[in-house]
Write a structure and sequence with these properties.
Layout: E1 6-14, H1 20-30, E2 34-43, E3 54-56, H2 59-71, E4 79-82, H3 88-104, E5 113-116, E6 121-122, E7 125-126, H4 132-139, E8 145-146, H5 150-157, H6 164-178, E9 182-191, E10 197-205, E11 215-219, E12 226-227, H7 229-252, H8 269-305, H9 309-320, E13 323-324
Parallel strand pairs: 1-2, 1-4, 4-5, 5-8, 8-9, 12-13
Antiparallel strand pairs: 2-3, 6-7, 9-10, 10-11
Helix pairs in contact: 1-7, 2-3, 3-4, 5-6, 7-8, 8-9
Bound molecules: adenosine-5'-triphosphate, pyridoxal-5'-phosphate, magnesium ion (MG) (2 copies) and sodium ion.
Length: about 325
């Protein structure tokens, strides 16, 4: 449906389970694109387990791997995806890589695309060092799509999001301050007056041809806390957006807008992509929940019959940790 796509993905690697590159690699490949992975950290498991062993890459190590690709002429990337980075200098190194790749494409402007997930924190809590914030602020201007969660959007815009008005202000501020063309807030929980609280994603595109105009998709919330879903969202979005952009170029390029620049949300590549991404997320997470509940039941039974201390510990962990997304069907 679209030309061969090569993606450079820079994010975490975990030995067990799926977050960061372990998630993104599987997703991007299963969607038919080629992926080269630079692992920013290598950990035994995701952070929801309360402990993890492993190592973090330095900025020099990340740069060195990229230089190695270049020296072997393996740096023909169409897209880049960046996720969790272990410190301000790693953030700067990734910014340099992105600019280098972008520069290679100046003969065909707009043909390189960087999806940046500015991983800094969640639910009001920062989980990187303070100096990572200004480091991200410095490189967002070079990204094409950013995927902050609500907390990260607040952090980089300086605007506390409490309702649709402040949400719109935050997004407009980000577009204007950083000249960033596409913004998706990957999860937002808001209370609209007089109705149930809801989970949603909100996106916006701002280019010379399109004025910023927010769209929102509500998400049926599944009663479970997952790990890796931010990365799954990012990887799916990257591929679906590329598909949508090629569909627009191929099919609608010469069509006139019906009324000025009033673009119907579903005609926006970003909105089209979002609908597909959320449909996939919902399928996978629904199955994950079923499988996780069955696993819990098995542990509960074991604790009830044998009741060794280990079984009880395992059960407690299974209940408290962020659930692993099940990607492989059994
Ligand atoms: P980050 O990884 O930067 O913290 P985030 O907090 O936005 O991003 P998630 O909360 O994992 O990441 O949400 C990403 C997407 O995963 C959502 O847009 C939604 O599609 C899906 N998702 C995550 N948790 C749930 C849930 N409990 N019910 C339904 N969908 C969910
Ligand atoms: N644990 C580690 C080591 C990670 O790198 C990440 C995300 O990159 C997570 C957990 C959480 O993943 P998510 O925010 O996608 O749920
Ligand atoms: Mg989150
Ligand atoms: Na995110
Ligand atoms: Mg994340």
């Amino acid at each position: 449906p679209f030309p061969e796509t090569r993606v450079l993905a820079i994010a975490s690697h975990v030995v067990y389970g799926y977050v960061g590159n372990t998630m993104a690699g599987f997703v991007i490949q299963s969607m038919g694109c080629e992926v080269a992975a630079i692992n920013s950290v290598q950990l035994s498991n995701h952070l929801g387990y309360g402990q993890a062993k492993g190592t973090r890459a330095t900025a020099a190590e990340i740069t060195d791997l990229y230089d190695g690709l270049k020296a072997s002429y393996l740096d023909e990337f169409d897209m880049m995806l960046s996720g969790y980075l272990p410190g301000a200098s790693a953030v700067e190194a990734v910014g340099s890589i992105a600019r280098d790749l972008k520069y290679k494409h100046t003969m065909k402007p707009g043909s390189f695309f960087w999806v940046l997930d500015p991983v800094m924190g969640d639910n009001g809590r920062l989980y990187v060092a303070e100096d990572v914030i200004p480091a991200y602020k410095n490189l967002i201007k070079d990204a094409d799509l950013i995927l902050p969660n609500q907390f990260e959007a607040e952090t980089i815009s300086g605007i506390k999001i409490v309702d649709m008005v402040t949400l719109k202000l935050a997004i407009t501020t980000l577009h204007e301050r950083y000249r960033i063309p596409h913004i998706m807030i990957t999860s937002i929980s808001l209370q609209s007056p007089g109705s149930e609280p809801f989970l949603a994603v909100v996106g916006s595109t701002f280019t010379t041809a399109v004025k910023p105009r927010l769209f929102r998709v509500k998400i049926p919330a599944i009663d479970c806390f997952f790990s890796g879903t931010g990365d799954m969202f990012a990887a799916l979005m990257l591929v679906r957006l590329r598909e949508a952009v090629f569909a627009v170029d191929g099919l609608y390029e010469t069509a006139a807008w019906v009324s000025g620049d009033e673009v119907a949300p579903t005609e926006l590549p970003l909105a089209k992509a979002t609908e597909k991404v959320l449909a996939s997320m919902h399928q996978v997470l629904t199955r994950t929940k079923v499988s996780r509940d069955a696993e819990l039941e098995r542990y509960e039974k074991r604790v009830g019959t044998r009741n060794t201390g280990e079984d009880e510990k395992r059960l407690k962990l299974e209940v408290s940790k962020a659930t692993e997304v099940r990607l492989v069907r059994n």
